[in-house]
């Protein structure tokens, strides 16, 4: 049994053409450097040209309701992650 | 769906509520989102932890029946697609645990509850995947059933849960379609492949119907959860919707849904269909399904055998922080 | 599956001319060498994919799957080109799923069982450090088709190496237990690394026509990199020979490969000719 839990980090990402960093989600990591590495794998699927911030969740002071979370596209090369990669005949209906 | 039989705290009428509770309910009724640090009734918080936690557990236990076939996928492309899909499930688990953590419970605590059996995961993942066609059936039926529930949950009242659901739904649609694409190949393939496809449908049809849980039209728990907008539809509504959408898809494949009573009801505008064996469902929940033991053991092993890895990385982080502090002090 | 077909059609149209593909004399060695590249990534990708759902923590589970996905992607490119060079109507899938162990050309290092995370990460690190040097050289290959694949793969492999180097340092210099596990893994894997640098006639033929580097030339950079990481990780480089276990790339494997293939090729073998 692990004695110490890895702290939670909030991840902010600025995409290649984005202006600002945006919150994309959270993850666990033992320190900030690993939080950034993990964020590359978890939240960018290693898309190039992104800038990542990791902030310890406990260091965030929050006001009341926040903005709606953004969505991130998976890496372009993994085309099968996109639903339209799979040809479903029209007769089958919406899926 | 991935959270079944979630007990909610007792339901109160608006008049019986405290002013705080009433204001809270009115915010929900107006369609406002509740955010982590805002006041919420203890029952709302506890119910959500149970529900989101169960959903998260289902995602990571759900990696196992499909992960089972990654090393046996029949082509390089199928291997990559399946691996990406099972990886997504780990990601979905991660998003959901994070949402639960905003309610004041840690991921490790939730993990421990999964491992001790104090928290459940969806009954569906206690069924084995026996042939490659099961990768099709799981994507098509299991992810299909999950989507029925997850799409409306994007509008749930709790902000972090809603946002996790939006992200998950976006990724989940590829899952169902990849499953159906496998089924199409199999159903149009050799006689053996078609036999595998039919067999997979036979084995997964009723377990998929069970995913929605028993009828809850008279349940007080469900009524409270629906008032809180953490449950958006009754189990029966979702099950009906699933059957109505899935039957034509099975027909297109040329496969037979294993239900002799299945019939379109013109008057209702829905299919009539047979209920699954609810005795079996409760037995599976109690731990007597075909794979309960294997699934939990696999999760426990991963966690216990990974302890040195997590601890090693923690120790390094502490050492390097101390080294940095010492270097700073020496300047 | 239209999307992928479209993409590969576009890629075919844009492909550079490569005279090496038409060189009949070169063909057997070129084919063999491409299988080495593709089989290394196929088998290591397979091993890493075994972790999916069983990782020590969710973030690592996801990261390992990403690496495995990259390697499977590289396999499709290398074995795809191998099939094209061979020109006998076989596909990358035919090569992956219908060759027996003696026709597999991967180094023994990558087929070794996963063991614990220490063994898995150390195996990947030792391979990544070679893979990085190899692809860096291949990106400047005299064969435009090889250079194209190498350039694509190199971006991903640079990250693989960065990630495993970091983890080797952290776990080596972590707890006493993690240190011991990493040292054990290193001691055990070290004798398999020499195969990556030992050239045979195939490697020499590739180097001679300027498709691939002279393997021994990669060794110095590899050692520098590995030493640096091991030092920082407080791990001791083994004094044993590093080239004890060889033969994988000539098709003489460990007992483990047969089991991998039995699993991996099961469907294609049980239902010959079926389409999936």
Automatic annotation (TrEMBL), chain A:
InterPro entries: PaaB (IPR009359), PaaB_sf (IPR038693). Pfam families: PaaB. This is 1,2-phenylacetyl-CoA epoxidase subunit B. It comes from Paracoccus alkanivorans.
UniProtKB/TrEMBL annotation, chain B:
It holds the Pfam family PaaA_PaaC. Signal peptide: none annotated. Residues 1-21 are annotated as: Disordered. Coiled coil: none annotated. It comes from the Bacteria. One of its GO terms (biological process) is phenylacetate catabolic process. GO terms for molecular function: phenylacetyl-CoA 1,2-epoxidase activity. GO terms for cellular component: cytosol. Residues 9-21 have a biased composition (Basic and acidic residues). NCBIfam families: PA_CoA_Oxy1. This is 1,2-phenylacetyl-CoA epoxidase subunit A.
Automatic annotation (TrEMBL), chain C:
It comes from the Bacteria. GO terms for cellular component: cytosol. InterPro entries: Aromatic_CoA_ox/epox, Ferritin-like, Ferritin-like_SF, PaaA_PaaC, PaaC. One of its GO terms (biological process) is phenylacetate catabolic process. Pfam families: PaaA_PaaC (PF05138). PANTHER family: 1,2-PHENYLACETYL-COA EPOXIDASE, SUBUNIT C, PHENYLACETIC ACID DEGRADATION PROTEIN PAA. NCBIfam families: PA_CoA_Oxy3. This is Phenylacetate-CoA oxygenase subunit PaaI. It comes from Paracoccus alkanivorans.
């Amino acid at each position: 049994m692990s004695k110490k839990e890895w702290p939670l980090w909030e991840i902010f990402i600025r995409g290649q053409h984005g202006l600002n960093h945006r919150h994309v989600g959270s993850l666990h990591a033992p320190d900030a450097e690993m939080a950034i590495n993990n964020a590359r794998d978890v939240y960018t699927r290693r898309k190039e040209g992104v800038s990542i911030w990791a902030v310890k969740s406990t260091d965030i002071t929050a006001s009341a309701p926040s903005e709606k979370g953004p969505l991130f596209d998976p890496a372009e090369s993994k085309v099968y992650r996109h639903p339209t990669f799979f040809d479903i005949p029209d007769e089958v209906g919406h899926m | 769906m991935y959270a079944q039989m979630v007990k909610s705290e007792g339901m109160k009428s608006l008049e019986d509520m405290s002013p705080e509770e009433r204001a809270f309910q009115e915010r929900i009724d107006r369609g406002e989102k509740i955010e982590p640090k805002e006041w919420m009734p203890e029952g709302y918080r506890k119910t959500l932890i149970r529900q989101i936690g169960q959903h998260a557990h289902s995602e990571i236990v759900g990696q196992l029946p499909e992960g089972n076939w990654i090393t046996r996928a029949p082509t390089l492309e199928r291997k990559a697609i399946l691996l990406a899909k099972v990886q997504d499930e780990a990601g979905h688990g991660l998003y959901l645990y994070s949402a639960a953590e905003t309610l004041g419970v840690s991921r490790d605590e939730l993990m421990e509850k999964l491992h001790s059996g104090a928290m459940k995961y969806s009954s569906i993942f206690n069924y084995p995947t026996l042939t490659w066609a099961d990768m099709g059936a799981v994507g098509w039926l299991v992810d299909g059933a999950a989507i029925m529930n997850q799409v409306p949950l994007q509008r749930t009242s709790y902000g972090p849960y809603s946002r996790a659901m939006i992200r998950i739904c976006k990724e989940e649609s590829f899952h169902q379609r990849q499953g159906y694409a496998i089924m199409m190949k199999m159903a149009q393939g050799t006689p053996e492949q078609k036999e595998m496809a039919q067999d997979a449908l036979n084995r997964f049809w009723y377990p998929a119907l069970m995913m929605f849980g028993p009828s809850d039209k008279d349940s007080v728990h469900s009524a409270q959860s629906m008032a809180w907008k953490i449950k958006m539809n009754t189990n029966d509504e979702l099950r009906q919707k699933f059957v109505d959408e899935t039957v034509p898809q099975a027909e297109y494949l040329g496969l037979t849904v294993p239900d002799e009573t299945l019939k379109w009801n013109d008057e209702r505008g829905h299919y009539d269909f047979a209920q699954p064996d609810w005795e079996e469902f409760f037995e599976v929940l109690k731990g007597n399904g075909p794979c309960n033991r294997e699934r939990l053991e696999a999760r426990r092993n991963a966690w216990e055998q990974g302890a040195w890895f997590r601890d090693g990385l923690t120790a390094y982080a502490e050492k390097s922080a101390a080294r940095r502090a010492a270097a700073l002090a020496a300047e | 599956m239209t999307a992928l077909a479209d993409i590969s059609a576009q890629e075919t149209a844009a492909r550079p001319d490569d005279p090496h593909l038409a060189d009949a004399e070169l063909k057997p060695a070129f084919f063999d060498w491409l299988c080495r590249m593709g089989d290394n990534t196929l088998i290591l990708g397979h091993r890493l994919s075994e972790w999916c759902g069983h990782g020590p923590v969710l973030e690592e589970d996801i990261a390992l799957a990403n690496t495995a996905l990259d390697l499977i992607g590289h396999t499709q490119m290398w074995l795809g080109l191998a099939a094209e060079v061979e020109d006998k109507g076989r596909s990358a899938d035919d090569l992956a799923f219908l060759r027996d162990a003696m026709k597999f050309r991967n180094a023994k290092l990558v087929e070794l069982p996963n063991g614990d995370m220490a063994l898995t990460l150390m195996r990947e690190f030792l391979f990544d450090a070679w893979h990085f040097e190899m692809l860096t050289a291949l990106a400047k290959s005299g064969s435009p088709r090889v250079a194209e694949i190498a350039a694509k793969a190199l971006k991903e492999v640079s990250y693989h190496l960065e990630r495993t180097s970091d983890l080797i340092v952290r776990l080596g210099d972590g707890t006493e237990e993690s240190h011991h596990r990493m040292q054990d893994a290193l001691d055990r894997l070290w004798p398999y690394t020499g195969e990556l640098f030992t050239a045979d006639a195939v490697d020499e033929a590739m180097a001679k026509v300027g498709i691939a580097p002279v393997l021994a030339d990669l060794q110095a950079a590899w050692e520098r990199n590995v030493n640096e990481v091991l030092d920082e990780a407080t791990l001791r480089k083994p004094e044993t020979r590093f080239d004890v276990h060889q033969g994988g790339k000539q098709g003489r494997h460990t007992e483990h490969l047969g089991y991998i293939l039995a699993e991996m090729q099961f469907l294609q073998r049980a239902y010959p000719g079926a389409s999936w």
